[in-house]
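Check these lines:
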Amino acid sequence: MELATFELLLGAQGQRVLHEAAESYGRVDDLTLGTRLRAAGHPPELVAAAIGQVALRRRAASKLGAEAASMYFTPDALEQATRAAVSAHRADRLQTLGPRTLVDLGCGIGADLVSFARAGLHVHGVELDPVRAAMARENLAVLGLRGTIELVDATTVDTASYDVAFVDPARRDGRGRTFDPQAFTPPWPFVESLLAGHGVAKVLPGIAHDLVPDGVEAEWVSERGDLVEACLWGRAFAGARRRATVLNPTLLGPQGTATLTDEDAPEDTPAGEPGEWWYEPDDAVIRAGLVTAVAALTGGWLVDPHIAYVSSATLVVTPYARAFRVLEELPYREKQLRAALRAHDVGTLTIKKRGVSVVPEVLVKRLRLTGSVTATVILTRVQGEGRAFLVEPVSAPRASA
């Protein structure tokens, strides 16, 4: 979208077209809707922009909630935008650390700015793309939040006058999405320079541990079981080396947040035969390298020194892992496993695997089960040997952190 088209969309005519597109969206196809709006005398570029915004707002609702219905997006900026619960967690944590002013270096359409401003920070967004900058300005305004937006290259900004310099590097190059931090925009050396002081950076959850600079905290965050991002907290804000944060109001109540750090993880955790209870750590816990913290919380042990599964003799409800009751061990070889599952009248099977070269969907198809029972099987290594276990997922009550 061109800046002139976005400005037209914000005007009286544009708002009428946007309202009509929203009212009709989903009831008629885009071609019919566009034809009708153009026939009413509206410019084709305005019609396309309005229909596009309605579609993006529908997509954004899963990330940003009801507020998405009044915000503005570009497809790439929406893809990179932080989930509302995750950005709110980051903003709340910053609020407790005491800073008052924040500059967002590459603010996009302002999704993070919204949470920072709502947490009481005085925010200033920096953006090089004029359309995204205009959208960020409008998104703050429509939500009744204060902040300023500047159209400038983030790498030229003097951040010394701000308490926090936040950056969410763009992860696209000329070939599309990139997972190489060296290809980020702003470039990785610039991000590292911010982290040496009062910088905070949102990065891919797959970031390698050895890429995290010394003195910087790496926090992996999951929301309702989905690992969504890692956040690097500069030396001015670091409270640990590694942290796993779980956001799940269903399990944790209104506050909805639980966190583990490397201080919770013992250096030496034994490995041994599985007990009655099996624990699958949350992906944030696994990426943070804090599986042994789950073992400590549950009074358990590892099933293998190199596998992210924990076992215990007792059931402990924890937000950091999903619990399973071990019903029995099954044969690991496919032919014998099929016979055992058929003897249990299994028809619908979920396979969870770790540390073994099995593709669950392919194996389920090959097993050709036709029974009436739904079951879960864990395939993994125990002390280096492939093993199979029939387990029952635990429907856990609300857990405490």
